Inverse folding.
């Protein structure tokens, strides 16, 4: 996966957003499950219309803050078993979430996304990154590390363009 692949994937799904909340999910101690968290930690708060949250294994703990912010789009980033090659990223449509395996969450993502969609009218976008290893104490695998870097780079560009939106 290259930045040329990640950028159109994200840009298409974030277009028309004036405000954006990004929440990285996963466990920092379980190998590739840390992908979403590493991305959230690497992104800095780019401006008043973008918020970044480190949701860890309980992203639902941030629903109150997200509701106050009222984003147009909520981008959730998480490692997911999508039967793709390691490191591949894909947008998972909300109706397909039940068919995808997420390794560490206290509340199913589908429930959280539906709740926020109903409460604030945001458009949920779920970016899944196919992991290879979810072992305790492991680091990101090379393929996932590359994708994480590319997503950070792509989101930095999207965040800058959002910041300029009136």
């Amino acid at each position: 996966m290259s930045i040329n692949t990640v950028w159109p994937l994200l840009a298409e799904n974030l277009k028309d957003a004036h405000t954006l909340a990004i929440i990285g999910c996963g466990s920092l101690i379980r190998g590739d499950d840390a992908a979403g968290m590493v991305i959230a930690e690497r992104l800095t708060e780019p401006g008043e219309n973008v918020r970044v949250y480190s949701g860890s294994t309980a992203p639902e703990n941030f629903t109150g803050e997200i509701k106050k912010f009222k984003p147009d789009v909520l981008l959730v980033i998480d490692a997911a078993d999508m039967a793709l090659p390691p490191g591949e990223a894909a947008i998972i449509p909300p109706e397909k979430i039940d068919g995808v395996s997420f390794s560490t969450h206290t509340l199913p993502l589908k429930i959280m996304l539906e709740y926020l969609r109903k409460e604030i009218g945001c458009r949920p976008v779920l970016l899944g990154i196919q992991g290879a290893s979810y072992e305790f104490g492991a680091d990101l695998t090379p393929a996932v590390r590359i994708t994480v870097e590319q997503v950070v780079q792509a989101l930095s560009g999207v965040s800058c363009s959002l910041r300029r939106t009136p």
Observations:
- Residues 96 and 120 are 22 Å apart (CA to CA).
- The chain has five helices and five strands.
